[in-house]
Design a protein that fits this description.
Number of strands: 10
Distance between the termini: 36 Å
Order of helices and strands: HEHEHEHEEEHHEHEHEHEHH
Radius of gyration: 20 Å
Number of helices: 11
Strand content: 5-15%
Strand order of the largest sheet: 2-1-3-4
Largest sheet: 4 strands, parallel
Shape: globular
Bound molecules: zinc ion
Structural class: alpha/beta
CATH topology of the largest domain: Rossmann fold
Length: 294
Amino acid sequence: MKKIITYILFASFLILVGCSSEKDVSTKSGNNEKNQVIASFYPVAEFARNIGKDKVEVITMVPAGAEPHDWEPSAKDVGQIQNAKLFFYNGGGIEPWAKNIQLGKTTTAVEVGAGMFDIDGKTDPHIWVSPKKAIKMVERIRDNLQEKDSANKTYYTQNAAAYIAELKALDEKLEKIATAGKRKDFITLHAAFGHLAKDYSLVEKSIVGLHPDAEPTPADLAKLVTFIKENNIKYIFFEELVDPKVATTLAKTANVETLVLDPLEGLTSEGQVAGLTYLKIMEQNIKNLEKALN
Ligand SMILES: [Zn+2]
């Protein structure tokens, strides 16, 4: 079922791509000033777009609705990266292909999250869900855009500052709800919130591991049910891009409610049409997290 949905989403993505490449041709004749930048998947692309705005065209490799952990580039995708001057990727193992592809002669690849992945000796790529680390990612993207396009240095400084102010507001909200919350632990489907938990002194218990396709064993689930009952937990978080079956089954067995905590690994096609953004989804995540912590 999940595969069928993925194919449908992929097919609609191809239609979208068809439309946008036509648009590219028309803008090329009018304005060839835009720098083309490649971003591996949603959060990296979203940050780059908010800094580059009118001066940068950001092409996202992983399409809407696809789960980045499972995605692989086609030969055409690799060709596009080879032709770009800048290729931003997150790192930490979520896009293992990014480190292995042959780059073009003038392509600079930037691991945006370099140095930020460690959680108690373990590498966890999900840094963007922590606003504290998202700010550092934005700074690194800004610095690299400025290096490649020094004529627009001030423009990138201003855009990055405005976006960092929004991230700072999220950071303050998270600090507030984490400090005020009656409890410190929350339960998620796949372990995408370790950095958020670490940076805001919370504890994430996940049903599956770092990869959303991992299947929990019956023993894992039994342990979690006991934990939920013993600790009087009322909510379990699931997410948009993966099958919520495990979370809903667990919720029924343990008699708890489910809420969405979006790991922002990508937008769904509906979310994209509805104009959802990293900032809007994080606001909703914080609201839901506040509910679960009280
Ligand atoms: Zn993940």
